[in-house]
Amino acid sequence: MATHLVSVLNGLAMGSLLFAIALGLSLVFGMMDVLNLAHGAVYLVGAYVAVALVTDGAGVAAFVLAVLAAAVAGALLGGLLAALTRATTHHLDQALLTLGVGLVVAEVLTLAFGTDVHSISAPAPVGGGVTVLGETYPVYRLLVIGFGVVLAVAVYVLVERSPLGSVIRATVADRAMVAALGVNTGRVLVGVFAAGAALAAVGGVLAGPILGAQPGLDEKVLLLALVVVVIGGLGSVRGALLGAVVIGQVQALGTALLPEYASFLVFAAMALVLLVRPAGLLPARTGVHA
Amino acid sequence: MGAVSLFSLTRTIAGLAVGALVLSGCGSSLGESGQSGSGGTQSGGAVKLGLLVPLSGVYAPVGEDIKAGFELYLDQHDGKLGGRDVDLVTTDEGEGPQTGVPAAQKLVTQDQVAAVAGVVNSATALGLRDFFDESKKPLLIANAGADDITGARKSEYVWRTSFSNGQVSGALGPAVAEEVKGSVYLIAADYAAGKEMVAGFRKSFEAAGGKVAGEKYTPFGKTQDFQPYLSAIRKSGADAVYAFYAGAEAVNFVKQYQQFGLAEKTPLYGTGFLTEGGVLAAQGKAAVGVKTSLHYSTELDGAVNKEFMAAYQEKAKKPPTVYAVQGYDTAAVLDKALAEADGDSGDALVKALGKVGPVDSPRGSWKFDADHNAEQTFYLREVRADGKTAVNAVVDELD
Hints:
The structure holds two protein chains of two kinds. In chain A, 74% of the residues lie in helices and 3% in strands.
């Protein structure tokens, strides 16, 4: 039993990271109808920022610096992507455009950092382990769970309780109506795109000590984020949170309980959700029209 | 906004698939270098050779090392093999047979090379077996480890300068059985190589009286977090662990093995790829104490290795790996065979390959066995901290 509780804990850590990564993808998809396939590459930019700035045995300062640098880099990339995708309204064109940007970014990263696998060490003070339920558990992962909780609360307050949040939610629900009310929806969209990309890049730094950085990681992360978005429901903060927690648990606890089926548990969960709730578990409220 | 539908997602995924197809199509032509059209099959003049290694995808680090090793040998011999100028055509193998097989076929049919060297992926190597067998051209495998390549599906035209999976993991079995008092848990990535590695280890380990605590395969290329498996290992009460992973999975497995506190109490054994080259650099101190079997280590004492290390360091600006040695040795074998061969028809080359004899390599002396596989010494290596970096110290020779 204790073993499984540790898996639950671990699922929460992975869920926290997935939430940070998938949130931007979900909001951009819900708001702008843009499936940003460069999202994984933005994540990878964050991971490589950590490779460059966090050296072995680095302290908290270097790590915080990496988080800030990744946030800036992510926001810039997000802004750029928002501008690019506004040039066309065709879904497939936008998806291919972002896919292309993602491939270019990933290739540039490979040119700069090589094809080798890089790992990032957790900041020295939290690099060790503590005993949880009789097993050694890395302190860093506990901090990641804490970060996930703080992020979830902060985003909830921002999106559900602030005036800015009501504009964002209204834009998800009906962009034309919000524009008719005199709000510059373009600026809202760019802002959300940039913020979402910044979060993905920060996720890349925070996931560094767990997943490292290597070519191809962008695709794996993008796929997981897409699954989270599909399970949670598009354009919904609560959906992204629920989807991330579910996928985190499916990966950790599911693997512990059913190791033989580990490779497709995630997709089985997605298929199940699509069968029962085709719009996802907690889709954005969409107003009257379909 | 209900417009976002599954339909658009499906279309996007279809678009992605098309994109991927287009890209992989480009990959095989982008990776090419060298000129075409010179024919190059006349005896005495230049000889045209194909180097087929992954320059993109997950195996790119391995491919780059093989290429660097091969090219180092050429550089050291004024670009000549067997006294003849070499026109080397390098092509990207990609990640699997869907890119590797057509790339090799192009080397033989279009570029008309006399022989092809390289091949990292075992599925690609097995997929190429019939083609080379029928075209009567030599294929020198410089990495792919599937047992069948020089076993059930061996060919007169396929030679291997690297290792076979069962061989490299089997060498470790008796040593672990002797060192570990108790049972050992076996874990590997769930694909052909993982299964062969575990089978090879298990066979020699159990024959030497070892006891297995459990056997588990993790989804290949999809496992980033090993915590559920590490908990299962702990619960099994095993006294040691044997693991086979490579690349990113090797980094994550070894680091998490240490982070979750198993490294302190449960010694970790593995096949050398678990702690080789860039993988070891990324693992850093987390890998200290891991013991592996492999046919090479940078810490080998021989003069050939010392000289090779210095030359490789200067060329590639990093220490060599077993992959670099395999590339280097493949060039050395071709050097000997071309010197011996009467013309460069496939049959003449194959005949000469049979007479290559012992190769004086950085890994020690080795030769081809009757099945065209490398017959060599395996070393028991232990990761030790060496200043700021970690190295694979040579503990013992395995037999």
